[in-house]
Amino acid sequence: MAVTAAVSVVVVTGISRYLGAQVAARLAADKRVGRVVGLDPNLPSAELAELLGDVEHIPVDAASAGSVLAELDAECVVHLALVTAPEQQGGRGAMKEQNVIGTMQLLAACQQAPRLRKLVMRSSTAAYGASFRDPAVFTEDTEPRQVPRGGFARDILDVEGYLRGFRRRRPDVSATVLRFAPFIGSTANTTITRYFAQPVVPTVFGRDPRLQFLHVDDALEVLHRSVVEDHPGTFNVAGAGVLTLSQAIRRAGRVAVPVLEPGLSAAAMLAGGLRFGRYGLDQLDLFVHGRVVDTTRLIQEYGFEPRTTEAAFDDFIRGHAGRRVVTPDHLAAAEQAILDGIRRVRAAAQESS
To answer: What is the top-level taxon of the source organism (predicted)?
Structure first.
């Protein structure tokens, strides 16, 4: 049974981005929360700034939070300032600096914060990796079968490792780790939503992975409850059920373009050739192997069940209906991109042999 308690001061990192701004705004509107302070070196957009009227903004990053947490007498820290893709932060080096080093320094500040009693951290199901050795369903106790190739997944493993050390040093602090499945929904704007929003969707030939999604509104609800209720532990957060990649593409009314050889490299080239944006190894491995997690622990502990993967994806479709139409030019570009990708992969293979 969840224990509800008032929280006098909550600090939220990453409020210049959608998730952080939404969480901070919800907490500021909750009478159980006294004061909400956002830490972010960047200013939120005008649209997000409207949400943050009752949220104090201190322009520092998580790595510089040491003196701030002590001065604020923070009781709860919600760490959302993680970068999921290199282009969001100016490259892989900057991404790792933000995710790993920033989190390590924030935890050091939390360790020295005398009034801190709760820490809520965003994590990801990417922590389990994605490979041909995966089990059908991951539980919170499942270890990755091999080290993930993607930068974000490796960052998540490092971040959770630092948090385990923090728990040993500060057993008096209730620490909640939320491993979110990929976000989707009518308002979500992520690599995944941009992938499915395109008229022609690149896939890897012969692969039809099982995918699980989380509606972004359900992620916000779980984050909110994690602050105003006590839920220590690590939790998978995802919608029940699965969609295969081919089912998702058909539901979205898109056209799948399978890459014939050899999967990952050609798919990455295809994505660039069609101007879909950059896809990292985290996304490419997901689209090859898929990933499904068990959410029993979340449902039992929180008394809350996110909407299903299918319902979350349908909301995404409604939000993007009619935005893209497949034209002969799209198909011609896809065909050319496939041929170019195959040529480049063959050329690279010949050079390395």
So the answer is: Bacteria
